[in-house]
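Q: Here's a chain of 84 amino acids. Please give me its 3D structure as tokens.
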Amino acid sequence: MFSLSAQTPRKDSGADGLQLIKPLKIGDSIPQWLWNHPVGVANHATAKTTISLQEYRTKKLIILDFWATWCAPCIAMMDKTEPL
């Protein structure tokens, strides 16, 4: 049986170095280095393909929504997050 988890790589997966990155939890602040890191976007209002979170830092709220086309709960949440 093969098992792979995005959150906790297996010791023999070759992804041991990823353990150095501390996962964010609800309520955590975004790490400083991430504010200027380029982020690819789709369907941006002004047709941008890359943004940085720094452009939105003075706004009231930033929502990062990670989803996948194969994830039924992700797809179900789209109707609820769209109005936000």
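Q: Can you summarize the key feature?
A: The longest strand covers residues 39-40.
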